[in-house]
């Protein structure tokens, strides 16, 4: 692959002089350098712990329960507040703040949130830290349960109206398994794409071939 040619900055210009009458005129001649040479001095190679130049393989350990709870909800841990959550929060706040109800500074607020997280096994996300400025708001947060159940599964325990029927184990069309009408779908130009890691094996995808896009 040929290297591209770029113009050099003014610091790389080479001056040359010539005489016009009695005056000496300086003329700058631009020097052209390749992009490979330009980036040669700035390129760094990171050495790995194994002694080679290849990056260390990164492995991610997935929690099966956390992965199963993933849907269109934000991935987070379920939380059920204990019965004495109010007294626990008040004891922690009294230890760090005394009789004050507002956080006096960020250091005290950080200490209280860390100890509450360790004691109740439930931390405050970064998006909600600015909303908790006093003890009452902290108690309300830790008294609120967090459920990782998707709304579709929640409807199983709800008293739904009589004119609403929900199919929880829904059926997805696939021409290889739905042979009642010879594998013909009611939507011939629509593909069935399953992007969820959880349901990919349960519901296989089906991509409709576009005949007008095929090459002759």
From TrEMBL:
<dbReference type="GO" id="GO:0005762">
    <property type="term" value="C:mitochondrial large ribosomal subunit"/>
</dbReference>
<keyword id="KW-0687">Ribonucleoprotein</keyword>
<dbReference type="InterPro" id="IPR018305">
    <property type="entry name" value="Ribosomal_m50"/>
</dbReference>
<keyword id="KW-0689">Ribosomal protein</keyword>
<comment type="similarity">
    <text>Belongs to the mitochondrion-specific ribosomal protein mL50 family.</text>
</comment>
<keyword id="KW-0496">Mitochondrion</keyword>
<protein>
    <recommendedName>
        <fullName>Large ribosomal subunit protein mL50</fullName>
    </recommendedName>
</protein>
């Amino acid at each position: 692959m040929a290297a591209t040619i770029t113009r050099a900055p003014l610091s790389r210009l080479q001056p040359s002089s010539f005489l016009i009458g009695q005056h000496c005129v300086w003329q700058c001649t631009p020097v052209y350098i390749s992009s490979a040479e330009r980036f040669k001095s700035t390129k760094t190679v990171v050495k790995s712990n194994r002694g080679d130049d290849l990056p260390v393989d990164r492995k991610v350990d997935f929690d099966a329960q956390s992965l199963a709870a993933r849907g269109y909800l934000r991935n987070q841990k379920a939380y059920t507040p204990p019965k004495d959550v109010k007294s626990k929060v008040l004891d922690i706040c009294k230890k760090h703040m005394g009789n004050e109800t507002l956080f006096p500074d960020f250091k005290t607020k950080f200490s209280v949130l860390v100890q509450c997280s360790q004691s109740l096994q439930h931390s405050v996300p970064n998006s909600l830290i600015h909303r908790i400025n006093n003890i009452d708001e902290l108690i309300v947060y830790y008294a609120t349960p967090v459920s990782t159940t998707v709304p579709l599964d929640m409807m199983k325990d709800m008293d739904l109206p009589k004119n609403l029927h929900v199919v929880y184990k829904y059926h997805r069309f696939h021409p290889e398994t739905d042979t009642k009408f010879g594998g013909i779908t009611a939507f011939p130009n629509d593909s069935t794409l399953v992007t969820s890691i959880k349901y990919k094996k349960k519901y296989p995808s089906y991509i409709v071939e576009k005949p007008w896009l095929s090459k002759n």
